[in-house]
Design a protein that fits this description.
Length: 519
């Protein structure tokens, strides 16, 4: 393979232990080993093999030595059938201590799994056409899509087929299972940038171009976005891609990342560092070497950014059908609630549920005639479709409850603070708040209006305590701007008070309808 040649020509990589084991054995081969480890228990897994389980969507949760796993399940474009939801709910119930989390990439996560349970879980997932391959590891991760694909009055065209084609191309494809680092892609034709294009390694975004006198719909492509501890906004290539060329272009970009991406240092290995060094012109030139000539850019169809929020009841593009966007506080459900939603989706829609990258969900395909009855369902008292201004727009990463890298607790804290603010402050605009437990940014702190990043600090009594840095002003409107850090740090126990004072000041000083971002 090309990367083997690349590796042999780059002896510095020989110092990177991850790169060495990745060449000795492909990460996806862990699926062959799982039955053996499941039969022999956690203690039979050599420590140096722990990282390889990521290719099967498995991370050891905190503390690693206890032997409990987090499992992420791939959900391309966030679309789930009724059978898939019931299967996922039953896995969370039977094995996952009733925890079911929707992620910021439309996937779902279980916790508390043991290695002995994994074969049965994988078997159950396979029966309903689901996989964990590519959910974690140095590989193409879950592909983000427009949560309304195919039913969206605000989409240029239905992207489901293209997204599934790209997903199938990369799924279990060992030509692309040893990338320099994780690799995130989005494919959406929603005109409100529902897929957060600028923070993906590669994003396909809606555009038109007049070709031979005919207006064609397709994509513009951005490359090199990503968050983590060094956030970067993706750069647009001067290209127009017809939908039928998407797989070829995605494969070519991934090949460039595989063969030219940096492998010496893990923290410099994301595609964004290569794009930052090369620039969009050189990247385009290299891409065309693989694809042959492609048309230059046309007209972007993107108008603003909805941050992945679809709350309320709205008409679909199909006559007589509606979708309902519902708030799931910080993305966490229990299995009974998942089943309740599945049954609701079956009774009123076609059984489908769509996960949003705002950690919320959508019930699609509800006929006009059933809407009034649906609105009376008691589930909406707990999970409203017109949520309050703080909890409705709060996002949180996993945090110290399960994550080995976390410095602070996040999910319960974000929920408690947001629900308190909703009781205390009546605001005319929502405030998007994102909380993360460390600089890795899984909860997308950098694009929040108010970003809260966990740290440890010594308090006045010289005790090490949980604390937060506060960032303000993040957006992906008009190409995007990351939020900026305010001076100082706030002890976790004072965070609610500080946020309350900040928002009260905003409320008292702002103009009507003025948002926190514009303030
Ligand atoms: Fe863990 Fe940090 Fe990611 Fe939160 S942001 S899930 S604490 S790695």
């Amino acid at each position: 393979m090309v990367y083997e040649k690349f590796w042999s020509e780059n002896p510095l990589i020989a110092k990177n232990k991850t790169e060495i084991w990745k060449l000795e054995k492909d990460g996806l081969k862990i699926f062959d080993d799982i039955p053996h480890y499941a039969a022999n228990g956690f203690d039979s897994i050599p420590k140096e093999k722990w990282d390889m389980f990521k290719w099967a969507g498995l991370y050891l949760q905190r503390p690693k030595e206890a032997g409990y796993w987090m499992m992420r399940v791939v959900i391309p474009g966030g679309i789930l059938t009724y059978d898939q939801q019931i299967t996922l709910a039953n896995i969370a119930k039977d094995y996952g201590r009733d925890v079911y989390d929707i992620t910021t990439r439309q996937a779902i996560q279980f916790h508390w799994l043991t290695i002995e349970q994994v074969p049965d879980i994988l078997n159950r997932l396979e029966k309903v056409g689901m996989t964990t391959a590519g959910a974690c590891g140095d590989i193409t991760r879950n592909i983000i899509g427009n949560a309304l694909a195919g039913i969206d009055p605000d989409e240029l065209f239905d992207t489901r087929e293209v997204l599934y084609d790209v997903f199938e191309y990369f799924r279990l494809n060992e030509d692309y299972s040893n990338l320099p680092r994780k690799y995130k892609m989005s494919i959406s034709a929603n005109i409100h940038n529902a897929s957060n294009a600028e923070i993906n390694c590669v994003s396909f975004n809606p555009a038109t171009k007049v070709m031979d006198g005919v207006t064609e719909v397709g994509f513009h492509v951005k490359v090199g976005g990503g968050l983590s501890s060094v956030p970067m906004l993706a750069e647009e290539l001067d290209l127009f891609i017809l939908p039928e060329k998407t797989v070829e272009v995605a494969a070519a970009i991934t090949t460039i990342f595989r063969d030219f991406g940096y492998r010496e240092k893990r923290h410099r290995s994301r595609l964004k560092f290569l794009v930052a060094d090369w620039g969009p012109e050189q990247f385009k030139e290299k891409l065309l070497e693989y694809t042959g000539p492609l048309p230059d850019k046309g007209e972007s169809a993107v108008k603003g950014w909805n941050a992945g929020y679809f709350y309320g009841i709205h008409k679909q593009k199909q006559d007589g059908l509606n979708y309902v966007g519902v708030n799931i506080p910080v993305g966490r459900l229990n299995p009974d609630e998942v089943i309740e939603f599945a049954e609701l989706a079956k009774k009123y829609g076609n059984g489908e549920i769509r996960n949003c990258n705002s950690q919320n969900l959508i019930i699609p395909n509800v006929p006009d005639a059933k809407l009034e009855e649906l609105k009376q369902e008691s589930i909406f008292e707990r999970f409203p479709y017109q949520p309050k201004k703080f909890i409705g727009y709060s996002v949180s990463c996993t945090g110290i409850e399960y994550c080995n890298l976390a410095l602070v607790e996040t999910k319960n804290r974000m929920r408690t603070i947001s629900e308190s603010l909703d009781k205390e402050i009546d605001l005319d605009v929502p405030v998007r708040m994102h909380m993360v437990g460390c600089p890795n940014n899984c909860g997308q702190r950098a694009i929040a209006e108010i970003g809260l990043q966990g740290i440890k600090m010594k308090n006045q009594d010289k005790k090490m305590v949980e604390a937060f840095e506060i960032y303000v002003g993040g957006t992906l409107n008009e190409g995007g701007k990351f939020n900026e850090k305010l001076k100082g740090k706030v002890e976790a126990e004072k965070l609610h008070h500080v946020l309350k004072e900040m928002i009260l000041f905003f409320k008292e000083t702002k103009l009507q309808s003025e948002t926190f971002l514009d303030f």
